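hi! just following up on the protien thing from before. the input was this:
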Amino acid sequence: MTFETLVAEARGRWERKTNPDRPRVIISAGSCGIFAGARKVKAAVADALKRLNVDASVEKTGCVGLCWAEPMVDIQLPGRPRVAYGPLTPAEAARLVEDVVGRGDPRVDKALYVYADAPYEGIPPRDQTDWFKFQYRITQRNAGIIDPEDLDDYLANGGYEGLARALTMTPAEVVDAVKKSGLRGCGGAAFPTGLKWEFCLRARGTEKYVICNADEGNAGTWKDRLIMEGDPFQLIEGITIAAYANGASRGFIYIRDEYPLASSRVRTAVEKLRARGLLGENILGSNFSFDLVVRDGAGSYLCGEEMGLISSIEGDRAMPRSRPPFPATNGLFYKPTVVNNVETLANVPQIIARGWEWYAGLGTDRSKGVRTITVSGAVRRPGGFELPFGMPLRTIILDLAQADPTDLKAVQMGGPASNILPADFVLTLPLGLDELRDAGTTIGSGGLVMVGRQTCIPNLVLQLMEFLRDESCGKCFPCQMGTRAYYNTLLRICRGEGRPEDLDFMLDIAPAIQFGSLCGHGQVAHVPVVDTITHFRHEYEAHIRERRCPQGVCEMSPVAAAV
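and the predicted 3d structure came back as:
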């Protein structure tokens, strides 16, 4: 069967599915929705339909990124637009189905409306809501819309047009297009993706690999999970294009061990793509052959570091290697290897299908394209938002996530070993790779954690350092002992047993940890300590000099309290 025939049949099925002759009920079934009660909501919906004696289809989709609105239920009546409602309890979902399906009218209590996929009386259209009007969705363009395990849904919505076009180009032309697009890595380092691919393409050797780093371990970051659970086919298409561009015939998707749903959906997608001839031998009738292996992570934070990940795939403990040489020339089994994370690769199909000029036209002159930002902590509406570079962080934090500016003390930028900066300063910054770097910070892995006024900063850093200490692989002394020294010092401070010289001590050892560590884990472990001593020194001094926790979080020891 030709690709054109595949797509034509898929579009026919999609047309029938989205213009139904019976009611459709779609359950948001990402991890956040399931955790919030989506399975109970689905059971309540099924019971309500049974009571109504209505023949309706009950489907699933991934999270649309509005984690605060979960569990969500979409209902589409024949001849009417698809309407999303949420958050819903099982009882509310049952009443909603009985009301909407029973009356044949999607208009109900306005408090339940999230959006409609087309203008409809009294219901806000999706693109005009406060949650979507700022967004430009590429990697999440299908999330919340398609069934993430239905290949026809993906093909009907532009799936594999990028790969089909790439196969009409030479590998060098594909690499050049990615270079010109301005796409940069979305995992933290922001290295130009096309340049990394070019290094691998030019590397000597006929055996090459592509690895998707899906070991998303940074606290406050779940953008890669949203992509894998909501649209795994787009990720795999991106990996396949990367393999073609770099001459790889085999690839790996290394998924965080704590992401069972993402792993299951990616594995299902791989099987369906093999069955349709979109993975394996002579893809789309070409001379290009490529296949994928899905690996679940080994449970270590260091599995997300590219050399640690490579060691884990090879069957060893996840530990970093000295660089250079870099993976592009000496990666998996010391063969040339491209390593990119999920969000980076998921951008590739649209860049190739729509042209590099389109992507380069998004964002700013210095930061091209878009980025998914996950916002959590002291906010009313946590979620994942795909936004063009240049968007003010104030808009993301206050308008999209709806943080209370009077309750914000600080913002943690991009992971446990990242900047912790005063909220007032962060609210003046734009979303931009180089723009944030000029301001002395970075978006890192894309997670923003809002720190409220009642949070004790020394105690927060203590918790972060406990994590960093426990996750140090122990291969290099500066990281292993430095994180331990930080933890022990912070523990004494939070117990009211700190000494005046402790702050200078923690600042003094920072360069040794930073420049002596082998990988990024140790090289940035000092950052939250140094930042908070710089910007929130008064909280440390209250613990040390006054033997009290201003927020009442830390329990001072009896001995310290008597001093």
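The chain has a mean pLDDT of 93.
The chain is about 45% helix and 15% strand.
cheers
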